[in-house]
Amino acid sequence: MIKRIKHSLEYLIDKSSRNKTSEAEENLLNNFALSEYQNAKWDEVSMGNSDAVSRNIYEEIQLRIVNKKTFNPYLKYMAAASILFLAGLGFFFKPDFAKEKQLSFKTSSNPKSIKLSDGSKIYLAANSSFQYPEKFEGGERKVTLLKGNAFFEIGKDKKHPFIITSGEVQTKVVGTSFHIQMSKSKCEVIVVTGKVNVTSKGQSVDLVPNEEALFESEKLTKQLADKSFLVNWYNTDVTLNQTTLKHVITILQYKYGVSFQYNNEQVLATPLTVFIKKDAALENVLEQINYITNLKFKVYDEIVKVD
């Protein structure tokens, strides 16, 4: 009985992918997929973020479709439901994200770093959150930047690509260093060393050092990176010579996970030179800027107001 169900399901899915199903067969698949998806239970701890996994499956199917045709709106449900259904019947080996015990790493007011089981180092900005497996299993090393910003130094392993999900964006590397800076409105990937592939919503760009990918307003673009971003400022002292307050604020936003509010945008053009120690608290850096510029900075949780 189970073998018959498996065979029928695989047959119909294959037939649908070739646009060969009848209307009745397509309705049967759609109803089954939607029903299984709605009734399925997802274990966030063992299987990861359900939205991210479903999105990844959906985007992978889109990328594999060569012929341009109307995309079945239930196909993303079908893919997720089929995996859950067949896994429950014992047909599939558990996917990598199901086998791996997921751990969380969060920061509060200061950046911190962590070393993963493959030797990769992640430098997490203040007010950020990161999810990773206790030990990597399978053919890919998958992690998730849930919130904020991070600098990645990835251990080289050509046989096991390293994949970071950050919101709507996936970054794939084998061994390199780069920034990922994520907010509610956009996501940036800035490459310092090596080669990086960035994908989102069917769009893809390849990056080399000094380049960055920007995902904003549903669009993925490639551009040259600001040279001051081509350093791991979480793990090294940084001197910003004869720069502007706007430039300094940008670095502080990324490093400390805060946003700045100011009434007069003209203050952003204020010239200054600032030295930022790698382990300096935000308040200490702001005191230094206060002394140089006579401006006043007040910190309210993750917001800094400039007077």
Q: How helical, in percent, are the residues?
A: 25-40%
Strand numbers in spatial order across the main sheet: 1-4-5-7-8-11-12
Oligomer description: single chain
The poorly predicted ranges are 66-71, 89-97
The major beta sheet can be summarized as: 7 strands, mixed
On the 0 to 100 scale, the average pLDDT is: 82
* Secondary structure: number of strands: 19
Taken from the alpha-carbon principal axes, the silhouette is elongated
Q: Number of helical runs?
A: 8
Strand and helix order? HHHHHHEEEEEEEEEEEEEEEHEEHEE
How far apart, in Å, are the first and last alpha carbons?
A: 73 Å
Q: Rg from C-alpha positions?
A: 23 Å
How much of the residues is beta strand, in percent? Answer: 25-35%
Helix/strand/pairing class, anyone? alpha+beta
Structure described in brief:
This protein is an alpha+beta fold and 307 residues long. It is built from 8 helices and 19 strands.
Describe what this molecule looks like in 3D.
- This protein is an alpha+beta fold and 307 residues long.
- It has 8 helices and 19 strands.
- A hairpin with a 7-residue loop joins strand 4 and strand 5.
- It is elongated and about 75 Å long.
- The termini are far apart.
Give a topology summary:
Layout (H helix, E strand, L loop, with lengths): L1 H16 L5 H17 L4 H4 L2 H15 L10 H15 L6 H4 L2 E5 L5 E4 L5 E4 L4 E5 L7 E7 L1 E5 L8 E5 L2 E5 L3 E6 L3 E8 L2 E5 L2 E5 L3 E6 L2 E6 L13 E7 H12 L2 E4 L8 E6 L5 H12 L3 E4 L2 E4 L1
Parallel strand pairs: 5-7, 16-19
Antiparallel strand pairs: 1-4, 2-3, 3-6, 4-5, 6-9, 7-8, 8-11, 9-10, 10-13, 11-12, 13-14, 15-17, 18-19
